[in-house]
Specification:
Elements (H helix, E strand, L loop, with lengths): L1 E6 L3 H14 L3 E7 L2 H11 L3 E5 L20 E6 L3 H9 L4 E3 L4 H14 L5 H14 L4 E6 L2 E6 L3 E7 L2 E6 L4 E4 L3 H7 L6 E5 L2 E4 L3 E4 L5 E4 L4 E3 L5 H13 L1
Parallel strand pairs: 1-2, 1-3, 3-4, 4-5
Antiparallel strand pairs: 6-7, 8-9, 8-12, 9-10, 11-12, 13-14, 14-15
Length: about 250
Amino acid sequence: MLKAIIVDDEGKARRILERFIVEYCPQLEIVAIVENVPEAVKAIQKTNPDVVFLDIEMPGYNGFQLLEFFEEIDFEIIFTTAYSEFALRAFQVSAIDYLLKPIQIDQLTLAVQKLEKIHGNSQIRERLATLQKNLEEYKIKKIIIPLSEGSLFVELKDIIYLKAEGSYANIFFKDGNKVIVSKNLKDYEDQLTMEEGFFRTHRSFLVNTDYIKQISSDGSEATLINDAVINISRDRKQELAIYMKQKKLD
C-alpha cells in the first residue's frame, strides 16, 4: 500500500479528495491531511509518503514552494489545480500528473494507476524543473519523452520533426539522432501546437516549422534542414502557407 498526503487550503476540496481516495483507490493509505505548506513539510518529514496530492494556489506559500524545503524529493506529486488550458499542456509535456478541479473519479483513478507504474523510478526533480520552466515562460520550451529505460528531457528547438509509425512515433533531432516512442502522433500534436511552432502537415508528420527549408512549388512537399522530405496533405497546404507567411512577418 502506498502512503498519501493531501495538501489543500480548502476544507471542502480536502474532504472530497479524501472520500474519493478511500472509496476508489484502495492501494492508497492517507497518512496526513493538511491545509498549508508548513504543515505539509512536517507531515512529509514525519510520515515519508509515496505521493503528495498538492494544491497549487494556497495562502502564504504556493504548492511549488513546498519543494524548496527538501534537498531530495523522494515522493511523487500529483497537483490539484484549476489552472488555464496553457498550464495544463505544460503539465502534460512535463510528465507531471494533475487533477483538474472539481476532481473527477476517473481522473483520480487514472493518476493513481500511473503512480503505481512509475513508483520508485520517477525522476521527479527533473520533471518538476521542466514544468516550472514551462510555466514561468508561459510557452512550452521543453518536453519529456518517455523511453523504456527512463525519460529523455528535450528542448523543442532540438526537434526537427516527428513521423508516425503505427501506434508509435519517431522523433528526429538536429544532431542526427532519432528515438521511437510508444505514443502516437496525435498525443504530440495535442501538446505541441502552432504556438510552439509545430504544424501537422500530414497524418504521418508533425514538423517544427523553424526547420522548413523549402516548400515545393505545388505545395505538396517540404524539405527540412536535414534534407528530409515530408508530405503536405492537400487540405493543409493553404493553412501552412498562411502560417509560414505570418511567421515571417512576426
